[in-house]
Amino acid sequence: MGYYNIQEEKVFNSGHAACPGCSEALAIRYIINTLGPDSIGVVPPSCIAIISGPQPLSSMRMPVYQTTLEASAASATGISRALKAKGNDHTNVVVIAGDGGTYDIGFQSLSSAAERNEDFIYVCLDNEGYMNTGAQKSSSTPYLAYTTSTPSGKPTPKKNLAEIMAAHRIPYVATATTGYPEDLARKVARAKELKGTGLRFILVLTPCLDGWGVADHAGPKTSRLAVETGVFPLYEVEYGERYTLNFGSKGTPVQAYLSQQSRYKHLRPEQIQEIQSQVDANWERLRERFSVP
User: Fold this and answer.
1) What is the pLDDT of residues 81-114, one digit of tens each?
2) First and final CA of the chain: distance in angstroms?
3) Other beta carbons less than 10 A from residue 221's beta carbon
4) For residues 29 and 203, what is the distance between their CA atoms, to the nearest angstrom?
């Protein structure tokens, strides 16, 4: 991949309520600064809602509608259609939701909007748990990860939401992380360019410093390790058919990623090897889909 020059408009303000070093705040900066002020945000209950601020105050220099946890995609549908009815074809509508409001509680309305191919951008900031309410597990939580509701480790694997959304054959699906900011900004810009074609979905891995048990400065490094180990490859899918790899496994052992996080400190060597085998199998399965090796 070539170098992407990030062009930011100052839509996201400093002085917000995120934790120091928060990956979600960093992701929000690149997302809404790339989209620009001619945008309307839809935010369900989440850390993102705390970061965006209590109404009428906001850390974002654009309108933000705080909706219910299950209705983000439905709310964005209504706003997008209302703008279209008024003849407005330029304002971006973007959902910024967490994994609890996307993988779980909000999935019904998201899948329905994808089936109808509604015209808005949906961004899921995936910190792999219900971090705003005490770090409980979601269906995004990885296999064997500690949460307050799975103290011995989650016994089931993480839902593969990117592939589920690609199966809807919407115009654009992408994965991204805060550890690759140029790649994240480029994908947001690409989703913006595709306005008018239908639903665009971006899944952004955003390590939760407290919930994952990583140092305040280690969010980007941890997310880069997720990519380099093959745990979270970065790729794009157009209309469910054309897969393009951006960044993927460099053969780094998954232990390098797990060892950065206290949520995996309970693992035995054989469990680490089991995770390694799963990651390898998933990576090989995904590689078969890429149009660029």
Assistant:
1) 999 999 999 999 999 999 999 999 999 999 999 9
2) 12
3) 14
4) 15
Q: How many CB atoms lie within 10 A of CB 89?
A: 10
% of the chain with per-residue pLDDT over 70: 97
User: What are the b/e assignments for 121-159, b being 16+ CB within 10 Å?
Assistant: bbbbbbbbbbbbeebbbbbbbbebbbbeebeebbeeebb
How far apart, in whole angstroms, are the C-alpha atoms of residue 189 and residue 282?
28
Pick the CATH number of 23-287 from 3.40.50.80, 3.90.1150.10, 3.40.50.970, 2.30.40.10: 3.40.50.970
CA distance 274 to 279: 9
Report pLDDT digits (tens) over 197-236.
999 999 999 999 999 999 999 999 999 999 999 999 999 9
* All residues at 6 or more sequence positions from 278 whose CB lies less than 8 Å from its CB, including other chains: 143, 157
pLDDT tens per residue, range 106-121: 999 999 999 999 999 9
What is the DSSP code string of 69-92? TT-HHHHHHHHHHHHHHTT--S-E
Q: Is 271 exposed, middle or buried (0-12, 13-18, 19+ CB in 10 A)?
A: middle
Structure confidence at residue 2 (pLDDT): 52
* Residues near 74 by beta carbon (within 8 Å), at least 6 away in sequence: 109, 112, 113
pLDDT at 293: 46
Distance (Å, rounded) from C-alpha 110 to C-alpha 34?
23
Q: Both tokens of residue 229?
A: 């180990």
Three-class DSSP category at 290: strand
Closest CA to 72 of 125, 24, 128, 32: 125
